[in-house]
Amino acid sequence: MTNDVQWVAEALQKVYGKVGRTNMKIGANFPHASVNGSYQLEEPHWWTAGFWPGLLWLLYRETKDESLKETAKQCEKQLDSVITDYYKLDHDIGFMWTLTSVANYKLTKDEDSKRRALLAANLLAARFNCKGNYIRAWNSRYKGDENTGWAIIDCLMNLPLLFWATKETGDPRFSHVAKKHGETALNHFIRKDGSVHHIVQFNPETGEKEKALGGQGFSSDSAWSRGASWAIYGLALLYRDTGESQYLQAAKGVAHFFIAHLPDDFVPYWDFRLPQGITNYRDSSAGAIAACGLLAISQAVERTEANMYKRTAIKMLRSLYDHYGDWENDGQDGLILHGTSHYPEGKNIDVPLIYGDYFFVEGLTSLKAEYELFW
Questions:
Q1: Does residue 1 surpass a pLDDT of 50?
Q2: Among 1, 171, 266, 274, which one has the highest count of C-beta atoms within 10 angstroms of its own C-beta?
Q3: Contact 363/292 with Cβ under 8 angstroms?
Q4: Environment class of 111 (CB within 10 Å of its CB; exposed 0-12, middle 13-18, buried 19+)
């Protein structure tokens, strides 16, 4: 470990201490956002179901603490009910099974986990619209809710499950779907200035792009920071899995936009392009995700260029540790404070978020050693 990241071991020790305590409280459940200090639990089909067990797998790899492994495995088994209750599956299959079954298989070679992950990959690939070359996002939530033409920037992070499935089976159909969706994201989601759209609506019959939607950003013309962070990391992983330089260049372009709009403490606002009068809350989760993406870029570029991306990632993670972390307070389940989940709907604003916690810990472990990513 280099001198400028000596603090990482201390941070991981504090993370392990707190998660050891919260594991006894949360157990094999699915936390989402902290409400009054306690993580609100969601049903297994909720999109964030993989992040708590994924965090436990990260720490198990560090500590070999069997209690963390056992909780993660119990969470994974509960996701079997989501597959059989097919109606609740959506595009976030990758988020859910990459951080549970793929993580388990990579660390323990559990064959049941491999089978689960391959089944999940088949179900994810089945959401592909071959006219528009995109993986459909959410299902209809109520009668008359028409979103069959919707795709979202977040879905870039689901694609590694498909590339993994091709590597495991030798069957290229999974990676074909992933590449086509990646091309669509590149062509329709990334603006010239490096900012991104959250949602793009296509005509599901013809595949033609119809319009962009604001989604969890302030508006269709704003610059939702977590959307940019999904793009940075997702595009960097697309480059890793395809070797196609267009994805690396796009990841760098979004990264440059993101970095240029960071405040002095290197932790982003929830949206970089807001009108006067709208509160500029921070989104610590966007910072943690983007830091992981910057580290992925640093692994893909020449050494002289890599230093800039890695240094920025370290500054972001260090700021989260020093100024946003909550380590000794048993009245707060979350690790990282000041996340913003869904401002337009007024949901989970200025609170810890489980995915912020996950990516913060992933970033720390990536700084400590060059582990194989779960993605």
A1: no
A2: 266
A3: yes
A4: exposed
Q: Would residue 221 show up in a list of annotated catalytic residues for this protein?
A: no
Residue 364 · residue 12 · CB < 8 Å: yes
Catalytic residue among 90, 154, 241, 357: 154
Tell me if residue 135 falls in helix, strand or coil: strand
pLDDT in tens, 326-345: 999 999 999 999 999 999 99
For residue 249, give the H/E element and its range. helix 245-260
Residue 373 identity = L
SS3 37: coil
Q: In this predicted model, what pLDDT tens digit does every residue of 279-322 receive, in sequence order?
A: 999 999 999 999 999 999 999 999 999 999 999 999 999 999 99
Q: Which of 4, 85, 92, 357 is the catalytic position?
A: 92
336 DSSP 8-state letter = B
Contact of 217 with 274, CB cutoff 8 Å: no
Q: Is 125 helix (H, G, I), strand (E, B) or coil?
A: helix
> Are the C-beta atoms of 201 and 213 separated by less than 8 Å?
yes
CA dist 348 and 189 (Å) reads 25
> pLDDT band at residue 229, thresholds of 50, 70 and 90?
very high
pTM to 2 decimal places: 0.97
**Residue whose pair of structure tokens reads 């060059």 in the numeric block:** 370
65 is catalytic: no
Angle between helices 245-260 and 173-188 (to 10 degrees): 40
Q: What is the signed CA dihedral for 294, 158, 135, 290, rounded to 10 degrees?
A: -20
